[in-house]
Hints:
The complex is a heterodimer of chains A (268) and B (271). Chain A is mostly helical. Chain A has one domain. Chain A has eleven helices and no strands. The radius of gyration of chain A is 19 Å and the shape is elongated. Chain A starts with a helix and ends in a 6-residue tail after the last helix. With 271 residues, chain B is an all-alpha fold. Chain B has one domain. Chain B is 74% helix and 0% strand. Chain B is built from ten helices and no strands. Chain B is globular. In chain B, 47% of the residues are buried. At the A-B interface, helix 2 and helix 9 of A face helix 2 and helix 7 of B.
Amino acid sequence: MAGAAPGFWRNFWANAVLSPRTTLGFMRIDFVLGTIFVIPLMQMAFFAFVVQLGNGSVAETAFVVVGNAVATVTYPSIFSVCQTTDSEKQQGTMEHLLVSPAPRFPLYVGRGLVPIGISLATVTVGLVYAFTVFGVPFHLSAVGPLAISVVLSAFAMVGFGLLLGGVALYLRTSIILGNIFLFIGLLFSGVNFPLSQFPGPVQYVGDLFPLTFAVDAVRDSIAGAPLRVLGLDWLYLSVSMAIAIGLALGLWRTFERRALTTGSIARF
Amino acid sequence: MATALPTGLAPSGLRSTWASVRLSVLQFLADPQWLIPSMIAPVIFGIVSFELVVGSGPYYLVYAILGAGMMSMWGQTLYGSGWATGQDREYGTLEPTIQAPSPYLYVVLGRVLWNVISGLIGGGIVYLVVVAAAGELPTLDNPLLFAGLFVFVMFTLASVGIVLAAFYVYTRYAGFIQNIGEFAFYVGTGCMFPVIFLPWWTNPVSLVFPPTWALDALRYASIPGYQGFGWGFGVDLAGAAGTTAVYLILAHQVFRRVERHVLEVGNLSEY
């Protein structure tokens, strides 16, 4: 497949480089810096003060602060990525994309490269705030596991964003989807309180979303959990990422076929 | 048009504002994504906050309802005002609107009025959801005073919305302010917790915003033993009224200058 390999990487790289300037949402430098440095601090502070209002303990504050540091990954990974579909429709480039012979995997996954980088930066900065501003206890031995957890979380969440982008191909706008999953994360992914507070079946709703595993993996890494526990967290994250990307490509293929049949997909 | 005010009875400004309110209502109904900032988000934040403060005292429900209600209004103000101007620019309708004989301020005023109304509706929904989740009514010694002051808080928020809308005409950074500023505003005004929880050196920044004063006054009036700013209810109320008046004057001046400037340089439609 000597001829296919350069085409694959050229396609992947072209999409990775071009998409921040064309289809990805929130990719101006001020947005990116605000997303990395301002949003995590404010979201963490907001919920930390609410815990303080409820006379919460130091452990409860740490729980909320770390949960929200990870949850802020939603902005660069889901919001920006799932807007690619809207942008294609609004710019009138969707039809051209659909008739292009370019292979879809490098095309779509290439778009996730920059958001993965920003997601990594957002969670990392959020965790630095957690340790330095909010005093969450941290041991240097946790750096390695934490780095693996953060990287896997960024990949998994961007994969989920691509999946929502696939769903948005069929919808008028993706903003609603992005918001809904932001709120689902705050409620059902164990960001602000343990899922055990919910009644039985509701506890398992969070298992459908990578954020739940991301929050678990980061919390376990900070707590110095044994490799057996961390390995399971990472396995869940990797599987959820693979499922999300697989479903995203499947959805794109299905809706593409439908688009080419009906000629109506570029409507918005 | 059945809903328009009779031409002979209404001044042109009032007619513009009324038309703007009507269009805002129709757009709200036609585009369900407005439900997110105005109703769905505050309900979620209300429930999350309720879960975090539940059982911490007899007035925890007041905090959850008040905070989430204010977030509902703020969502509408921030998104409604900013987005509307941004969309005008994107669709190419901002230039004709600015060139129309009616000042743009009256158009924005109509949008902000609808934001106030929908924010109040959102606040009502938040109230019902949080009360249903708690299974009890909030402890309020004087519900009428609470309701009156709540409407006043909304009014102070609206004044911020009008100033922001004026700047949105000029700036292409409305989206930035909306997304980055959302949580910063929630924290800075202490919408879900007393603002004195924040470091003292941030207080001057918080006091620039009328809702900070108004919320503190509302909590003084409705939560016995509340520890807010040391100066108490009366000064809070006066501060809220004063800063709101300053915001309204500022908005008027900014609108006049911005309108004149964008007509002179002709770059209104750039985005």
